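Most newcomers find our protein records easier to grasp once they have seen one. Sequence and backbone structure share a record, each on its own labelled line. Nothing more is needed to start thinking about how sequence determines fold. As an example, a complete record with its sequence and its structure tokens follows.
=====
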Amino acid sequence: MKKLAGLLALLLFSNANAKTLHYLYIEANEGTASGGHAALQLDDTVFHYQYRDGLIRLTKDDSAGFDFDYRYLQNRTLRVADIAVADESFAVLQDYFKRQFWEQDRQFKQLQTLENDTRLLDWFINLKTPPQTTPQTHPRLSLPAAGLFYNASDFDQTPPITGACQTQAAADNVLGALRQRHGAEYLTERSRELTESIQRLSPSQTDPQNRPSTYGFSQRYLDLVNASLAIQVLRTAKPLAVDACHALESPDGRLDNNQRQSLQRYQQQLLQSANVLLTSNRPDWGQALLISLARLVTIEQSLQSGRWFFLDDFEPLATTIDTEQYTSQAEAMQQKFLATQRLWHQRWQALSIETALDDAGYTDLEIAANQYREWQTSRTRQTLRYQGQQRLPLKPLPLPAWIIPNLSDRQLQLALQAAQQRTATMAGALQAQYAYELLSRNCVTELFHGINLALGSETEQILGGRLNPVLQVIPFVAFASLSQQNPASQIRLLPSLRQQRLAKQYAEEFAPWVFARESNLLTAELYQYNPDDAAFLFFTDDSVLARPLFGAFNLLTGLGQSLWGLLQLPFDAGDGLHNGARGLLMSLPELVFINIRKGSYKFVPEQ
């Protein structure tokens, strides 16, 4: 670790113009966090390496979101080493990690493009293979925004869906005016041109030199189909899909005069944007136009009805939970509901005649309204879409067998073979480059390897490119050694949510009573058991001496959950047994004074 200390000592800079980097150690918790975690914060951006599908991937988060996720939802204390560095060194590190993130992102997007090309070519082949029925497509081949206006029954014999989003009058009004402005002949000609472009499309057009690309055959096809469908929406003044929008039915969902005028002005901006998109050269103009048209119709519906209407901005695979499973956290859920209500009120009350509504402001309104409505409706239906909102209200449509390229069977087979070979080659290269290794390629080793590469040959000599001995690749050991070897760095403790609440109670009440009450889930007032965690009885993170005894009770609790899970095995797909086994594993280290588990929170209002 002295080599690591030498590296960081080299970064220390006493000049008044020095900047501060923050090396973060995140304490362990249940699940994949059992070994702790490490990260580097540069200004308001946090860079850290995470395990994903057998690979170690660089992740970039804003510091506020990172803090809320780890300290509040995951209930994990952060330890921070503040290190003053020269401006030049700070800029080099910042530039390196940004470039590394975007380069890695580009590589995996290239792989995804090759995979999508393979899927699309295989789909075209299946379309031509008797019996000629429409095969299922992979979700990545869906049309991201076309579902705002279309559903599968528009193209095949799929039964039509039902919903309360009835917008034909609004579509006739606002889309009819836009259609009239451009003329029926113009839209007919654009539709014909797009059809011909799709039919002429060939895999070789997008990659003439056989080089990896992030804009391949499949994406070009999807963009052209999206554009063609967007033109069809205008030509027919098609209403929104019946499940694409919703109204706020509560009293705070009514439009007042200020809101009406703000919406009218924003609608004019959207009309101008739609006009520009119709003549745009950007490849995804069809998707952008579909979103603009959908918002135009929704705003028109709001103006006609005098009530707020919004597009549903949750993705189809949004995490949905059964609220009855969290009855023990009823108070926290009520606080979360009230927080979403306050946020919605703040958003629409900020609208005024003087303040112009723009795309960002309308998106904030859309997100707040969807959050509020989701919590409202969860009270009667007992389900809640908990995660999965999007800043763009994309609603994918499974790729329809509508217009396809004029490619022969042989052309398709040859293109498929080439795409499969290139996909396998690139997947193998990325596996070799980013394969996760517990002791040689993890969140700590990659972080300091990046620092070493960024600062050049001098630090390469100091660090040696590796952390030694082996134990110092463990996050908490690395941070402890760093703290000892770098006394000039300032060490800060950022307590988890439960620790913050405990500190307040200790300051206000009799400390032994607080400890006795809050040390276990049966009497605790500051923490309610989260069913997402394995069952346990005692907290051991703040009780070192009693940790083995508390751990023994936790071990028995985990054993009990495992036995109950075994009985429930035919009914819960093994979830109970899995949680029980996880609880046993988290309790064993407690018997030898090691704490991992700290509990987590499901419903925490944004800080």
In short: The first helix runs from residue 2 to 11. The chain has three domains: 2-105+427-494, 135-400, 497-592.
